[in-house]
Amino acid sequence: MPYILVIEDDEITAREIVLELAAHGISADRVHNGLEGFQRALQPHYDAITLDLMLPGMDGLTLVKQLRERGITTPVLMISALGDVDERVRGLRAGGDDYLTKPFAPDEMAARIEVLLRRHRQEHPAQTRLRVADLELDMITRTARRGARELTLLPTEYRLLEFLMRYPGQVLTRAMIFESVWGLRFDPGTNLIDVHIARLRRKVDGEGDPGLIRTVRGSGYRLG
Amino acid sequence: MASPAKSWSIHWRATTSRLLLAYGVFFVIWGMVLLGFIYWETLHYLENRTDLQLKQQVGYLRSLDEEHMLVALNDYVVLEETNYNAWGLFDANGKWLYGDILQIPPGVTPDADTRRLPTDKVVSGPFAPKTSRLSVIAARLGNGQVLVLAHTTRIAAQVGTIIWHALWWGLSFTLVPGLIGGLILNRAPRRRIRQIESVMRPIMQGDLRRRLPVSNRGDELDRLAAIVNDMLDQIERLMGEVKGVCDNIAHDLRTPLTRLRSQLYRVQQQMREDDPHATLIEQCVSDIDEVLARFRALLRISELEDRRRREGFVAVDLGQTLQQVYELYAPLAEDQSLQFTLETEPNLLAQADPDLLFEAIGNLVSNAIKFTPPGGRVSLHARRDTPGTAQIEVMDSGPGIPEAQRHAVWQRFYRGEGGIDTAAGHGLGLSIVAAIARLHDFDLRIEGGQGGTHMVMTCRCFTTI
Lengths: 224, 465
Prior knowledge:
The complex is a heterodimer of chains A (about 220) and B (about 475). Chain A is α/β, with parallel strands linked by helices. Chain A contains 8 helices and 12 strands.
């Protein structure tokens, strides 16, 4: 069971994070201030950290910088009330792995933590081939097949499918998809991602195949 | 450049010019009054002297015997350059005896004071003087005869001419340099007014941080500029407060709304698929998402407006950006059975923030797709315009935006009244586009007449060699 360190000084936010993670089967430790958080984060048994950027004791940016300087690679989800693009860039540059602006939807936060956890686990073996059920993606030839059927994908569709297949069984929100596949962080309108998913779905889930790309009500999508 | 007529009208409207003209008119009138007075005084003096002379001459002549008198009278009429003399001798009955004056002029009585009479009543003929009046005096001699003497002088007329010339030259020497000097003096304030105008323009367009230039002279314009600057400080502060209140509301409401959404979401997760309330809850969640999206957009506009720096700007290939936007939105257009086309030129580079530029064009395209009914057309163009600029155009065959509403669509929360609000949209997209364009100093406008919206964003651009 994954184990998360929640460094957050706001009581309500902290409780929300811990509750939501628990709902996803993730247990969490919670600390209130930066210094204590830093001490705890040095211990090797955490799988990921959620980090408020404005903390008493030691601020989030310094904390993550110091962690990285000591070779600690635990993935960090930065959470900040500052939605500014510059803040985000600064946070990621300091060594954060993802950035979330307060207030956030807890399911979005949980989805991001899950992606971080999985990415961290995957980082070591260099994969060239992804497989989910009978769906297969070859990242060297950049081809995909469903069972015996070869899928003809446009470049965008390929990138979208690759992203979905890297995190099978995991809820991916529209914002996460837009950020990861297109590298953009603005509000593209409600149904733009849905339209892209629908096209991919028509190619992946052919007639007679069980549906692999699933819609998760109120959140996003899940493969498998 | 202003046309000459307009430039003159500007000259004329300037306060200095008006003062100058009024002063000029006053000066001319005053000069004329003064010189007129001098002329009148001179004339008066000369006539008095003439009268005196005539009296003396008559006195002298009557003291002579007739023979000597006639000789003296002959000397008297000797033609002179400046003076004219005439005489007439009449018997006791008024019958003419000698002289140029052929009859006693009417109204002249012997031994009375001098009289001034019109020239033609006294003498006539080729030697008559050009002046209009003559001084005439008559005296009864010892033998009962009547001697009439007339005298006039051209000096008065000459003095008049001199004064007239003095007036003209004086006016020319003062008025012409005065006017030229005035125009030159006028230039400095006009230059400052132009400076003020050039600062005011961006202020009127919303850049409230600019201030009017104040020199250290402390003149009227400086005082005015200082007042306007104080006023701008106040306006900026108030605007900041209003914007701050808006942002605070958006910011503060986001937290409880997010919490509400997560509670609803939790309820939704715990519900069975077939629960009759499931769709209701789902609708609630998506409504809250919509509200949150609006707040995000509002705060995004504020963030863009507050952003002053352009450090993040790099050379962006407009063609490539448009290609990416096209690829992102093409499926959406196809889903709505729209014909979506892209036309770009290679090598169009603009100094821009790539993500923001993408967002702006994406918003324009998204709007075009949203407001174009199925079966219509949306096209995305980038082309070189005048040297150094490129135009990004988004055209659609939708209902278009009426001329009267065009300036309003860039404002927050505006949605068209006649047609363009048929599709869902929170109306902040174009405000975001406007904020991004402003940040980049790109010109943004809506063109086209009937049928379809035609958005044009003009970028400063350069080409690699």
